[in-house]
Amino acid sequence: MKSQTNDNKSLSASMKEIVLERKPDESATERWKRLYRAKGGPLVGWLLDEAVNRKMDVPALARELGVTIGYLSQLHSGMRETANISREFAAACGVYLGVPAVVVQVVAGHLTLLDFVCATDLDRWVEQLGVEGEGASAQLACGAQLGTEELWLLPQLVQVLTSVASIHQTRARFG
Asked: What gap in Å lies between CA 58 and CA 51, rounded to an integer?
């Protein structure tokens, strides 16, 4: 029981720090920088920040996510790596944060944005587009069809995903 009290105190202290670090006119960029510097990483920072927004305490946050205070504390301290969270926990975090679970997995480091792009498929699609021109299409591994407009956007999508993945990985590495 004493360990749970210490876990709660540590997380509660971090939530108080969030309140002190916030600026009334904080931009989205400033907020994300703050979340990436958070103890435990950006996912833990985001969860605690949202709990502060909702005026929730640590036990309420743990209940909302379906985990124990100890589990949250282990993520917070780094004893457990956020990159190893379960799908169920990612889904619970997604519901709580109002984002798809895959966004949680990216922020947690479980997935990188580059995991969504297959270079060989991209090369094949672009080649197909060049050969077939108007009316070209390509089939994704999941079975979905991409038409001409989507194929033209793929190179831009890859650039954006690569850029965002690079920014995310740099922030995760250097805080």
From this structure: 8
Fold of 2-111: 434 Repressor (Amino-terminal Domain) (1.10.260)
- From CA 66, how far away is CA 69, in angstroms rounded? 10
Are residues 46 and 39 in contact, defined by beta-carbon separation less than 8 angstroms?
no
- Residue 146 dihedral angles phi and psi, to the nearest 5°: -110, 135
Residue 88 or residue 132, greater confidence: 88
Whole-angstrom distance, CA of residue 33 vs CA of residue 42: 9
pTM of the model: 0.66
Domain segments of the chain as ranges = 2-111, 114-174
Give the count of alpha carbons within 13 A of 134, CB side only: 0
Report percent pLDDT > 70 for the chain. Answer: 61
